[in-house]
Amino acid sequence: MAIQAVLFDLDGTLLETVPDLAAAVNAMLREMGRPEISQKQVGVYVGKGAESLVRRALSGAMDGQVDADLFRQAMALWNQHYELLNGYKAHCFDGVREGLDMLQNAGFKLAVVTNKPERYTLPLLKRTELLPYFEVVVGGDTCARKKPDPMPIEFACQQLGVNPDEALMIGDSVNDALSAQAAGVSCWLLPYGYNEGNDIHSTPCDAYVQTIEEAANLLLTEQGTTA
Ligand SMILES: O=C(O)COP(=O)(O)O
Ligand SMILES: [Mg+2]
């Protein structure tokens, strides 16, 4: 089975985005008269999209419930701040551009499948000059359901014109692994991102790689191609 397409998670895989996400969370909490939380804690809350992040930051729990009016108010504030802060401090992790260049030069079709809403994903990819690498970008609100549901990964494969067994997902969290596995797509995981506070090695996958550059080298070696 030859891999033709590589799908990438965004937050914690291609880009370090927690500084901007945390700045927006803390601006929201300040305006609501609540204590700020650490950047590390925000990193734990990232993974299931913006609404989940806001709900977790407000409740202080991974599956905490929040009063509907309070949540609406918080979401509006968070959106207002993240709109301005998105991409301000975001930057690529080591080996990302090198790996993307290798894969693009070798002819792989590349896509992003993120739980970040589309309206933040596209400007962020433009600002960090990553957008030209990708044929398809699937955001957290592009499909009816987000990762860990298989829908966004299945949609990316359809858009790229590849079968699930011709695609590889590379991510940093259990949401990427579960989504890929349910879609019948192989998944490799990286250790440096955000996995909702858990060691990535507790999440089963097809391989663990240290960087996107290492992933590209491994894929090219496995396929017997060179960039
Ligand atoms: O928006 C999130 O919570 C996580 O985004 P990701 O899917 O790119 O990691
Ligand atoms: Mg991620």
From TrEMBL:
Entry keyword set: Carbohydrate metabolism, Hydrolase, Magnesium, Metal-binding
Keyword Transferase in record: no
Required cofactor(s): Mg(2+)
Pathway annotation: Organic acid metabolism; glycolate biosynthesis; glycolate from 2-phosphoglycolate: step 1/1
Gene3D superfamilies: HAD superfamily/HAD-like, Putative phosphatase, domain 2
SUPFAM superfamilies membership: HAD-like
Free-text function comment from the UniProt entry: Specifically catalyzes the dephosphorylation of 2-phosphoglycolate. Is involved in the dissimilation of the intracellular 2-phosphoglycolate formed during the DNA repair of 3'-phosphoglycolate ends, a major class of DNA lesions induced by oxidative stress.
Protein name, UniProt field: Phosphoglycolate phosphatase
Organism annotation: Limnobacter litoralis
Gene it is expressed from: gph
